């Protein structure tokens, strides 16, 4: 161990540590990083932190926290110690994600067409058809190329033995990729020498790959289909990302008021007049897309958009109704979904999951709330969740009532102590923080995964919640070739 890390307590007996093995020895793919950090003084680290803070501030890299009185916009928390993933481990993750996304897309096509998986009783029909995000009005609609999930961010964790597990899928409007890209730029400014010592796979081409994927699903054949990004506006928590990606792709950032539907075709208002829109990368949830079809009070969408979509005159990424496949209840059936459509065993396993809608499972959950993690089926951002070991009796009783009242809306899982990674606290203390990984998958004519993803880190000591809205931050993620 280098002197800079001498105070770090890995505790490998309790948690899988990404850097230190159970024998207390640094893992080989971290040797160069530990050696380099061992050459730094505390002042060196503070200087590099200042470089990163200035970069983030100048770039406007922020996120929004709702319900905070002192202000809603904050600089995204960033930890200076990068996560290193060796190429052989990344290969497993990549293969597993391609398998998973392929099967989930087949599932979506099936339930919006023949519903064969329901007729074969692989999944109870009431769980799918009763899902909050199942859209009956889109049964029989064919999205371009038959693809529903063009952009996916599946969350991956490691258990106590270091096995990679899929924690959940984000198939509607997954966020965070802009932070992945900006984290890399910040690290290059702060630690340029490290990039000379490692063969780190690049991620900078993500915006171009995203644009290519979006253009591939255009229903109109022309050399450069017109793509726009549809944002809810500046008060959305991910607005920085919306504007950043539009700028990086060289496309228009639009709000609902900027678009108009005429004769079942979508146009954007410009200083040159109306321009036809072929593809909308929408960061607006289904319910707010079109006040004529969904919520009539929505000011975020475009009146007539859904009819234009039904007529095949515009493509939406991701497709309407894709959220049924990232319902946490459906998640529990994903091994069966992979086996059913692909005839293969899952490469990446899931976390064991209990469903309160099953009487035996409900009994077990209610008897073990103090040890389980309970999640609402369609919440995100760390909301709607009970972490049993950290909860009070009153909180457990409250969740018990909610589960019994609406068992379809919840799942329960064992408390998995996520892997840990050394992180800085106040640029002086270094301690183990729990992390996960969100790789980003693009699905057009082919499936593309940029090597890495967003490593989210729980910067509150001992916390298992990595979401930025709950005190989490992020790290740069390096996929390295030896």
From TrEMBL:
This is Circularly permuted ATP-grasp type 2 domain-containing protein. It comes from Chlorobium ferrooxidans DSM 13031. Residues 82-458 form the Circularly permuted ATP-grasp type domain. InterPro entries: ATP-dep_Glu-Cys_Ligase-2, CP_ATPgrasp_2, UCP005522.
